[in-house]
Design a protein that fits this description.
By secondary structure, the protein is α/β, with parallel strands linked by helices. It folds into two domains: about 5-245, TIM Barrel; about 270-335, no CATH class. About 40% of the residues lie in helices and about 15% in strands. One of its GO terms (molecular function) is oxidoreductase activity. This is Aldo/keto reductase.
Length: about 350
């Protein structure tokens, strides 16, 4: 396991981090076995959020007795001071700990959200107060707009950023990661499989592993998944493999969707999932989770072509900050069912 100095925190963190978002979907014993196996085998970074159902409680129940073995990161998606402070205090209780190593302002994608969180009575004030009280050690931010995140960190108010980085979403490389490196901040990459669309798993994980990041958060729910993820990082990435991965990322990332979720569809099509999986589907096919998404979305995807309000000017495309051809990609996705 590779360990690197995590920004200017003084902590050395494992290159693989345990993403606990999906733990509420499995039995407690299975979740605990996975977490403890991860700690036993060198993973020392655990990532969760107040909004991940009862994920924080699972961590409290299963590994709080090993608190010194891991760097604990959680998040609040509240934007105002009072709600954020209440949520942070609740997180401490849920995870049975006296201190949160990293408290992140969660899922900030709009300028208005950032302004609200950073307001005089915003969530950032709550995080600072908890830091001054010794209940939070460091403060970070997460989001899906890498170019905005690069601007938002300019004042030096954060210690870390959590962002997408995978073969189908390499966009953080353009501005965000160089800015983080220059500022000496913690760099955490999430969604190495892009929510279950990218395969093979080993190749998917080795792409962010080859980049300038401290931790790759992988959502694991079993001992077998932990083993598979650790195995993917046993060998360093050589020059030839790096070049192959970079070329593949150019191809798979050509959809240009950041998963910022500005788009909304009256037919309830999950447009970012269709956009991001479009190139992956053509090159590698889909993992079972990805195929399940398409089967579940069949009716809405096939209905898109006949939806009258979008025929002249698609509603989703009017909302996209990147002006992407969403309707065209969805029309092409319909051929998946032929």
């Amino acid at each position: 396991m590779r360990y690197t100095l995590f920004g200017q925190t003084g902590h050395h963190v494992s290159s693989l981090g345990f993403g606990a978002m999906n733990l509420p979907g499995v039995p407690l014993q299975q979740a605990g076995d996975a977490l403890n196996y991860a700690l036993d085998h060198g993973i020392n970074y655990v990532d969760t959020a107040a909004g991940y159902r009862n994920s924080e409680e699972i961590i409290g129940e299963t590994i709080s007795h090993r608190r010194s073995d891991y760097f604990l990161a959680t998040k609040t998606n509240k934007r105002d001071y009072a709600s954020a402070k209440e949520e942070i205090e609740r997180s401490l209780v849920r995870m049975k700990t006296d201190v949160i190593d990293l408290l992140q302002i969660h899922y900030v994608n709009y300028v208005s959200e950032f302004q609200a969180a950073m307001d005089a009575e915003g969530a950032y004030k709550a995080a600072l107060e908890m830091k001054e009280a010794g209940k939070v050690r460091f403060i970070g931010i997460t989001g899906h707009r890498p170019e905005l995140l690069a601007k938002w960190i300019a004042k030096g108010q954060f210690d870390q950023v959590l962002f997408h980085l995978n073969l189908a979403q390499p966009f953080a490389l353009q501005e965000l990661i160089p800015t983080l490196t220059k500022m000496g901040m913690g760099k955490v990459a999430m969604k190495p499989l892009s929510g279950g669309f990218i395969q093979p798993v080993e190749k998917a994980i080795r792409y962010p592993y080859s980049q300038d990041v401290n931790v790759i958060i992988s959502g694991m729910v079993s001992v077998d998944e932990v083993k598979q993820n650790i195995a993917a990082m046993e060998q360093e990435v050589g020059a030839e493999e790096r070049q192959e991965l970079e070329q593949l990322a150019l191809e798979l990332g050509s959809h240009n969707c950041r998963r910022c979720n500005y788009c909304s569809c009256p037919l309830e099509i999950k447009i970012p999932d269709v956009m991001i999986s479009s190139q992956v589907r053509n090159v590698f096919g889909l993992l079972p989770k990805g195929d399940g998404f398409y089967q579940k979305s069949k009716e809405s995807i096939l209905s898109c072509a006949d939806y009258e309000p979008c025929k002249e000017k698609p509603l989703c495309e009017q909302q996209c900050p990147y002006h992407l051809p969403m309707r065209k990609v969805i029309m092409e996705a319909a051929s998946y069912y032929n």
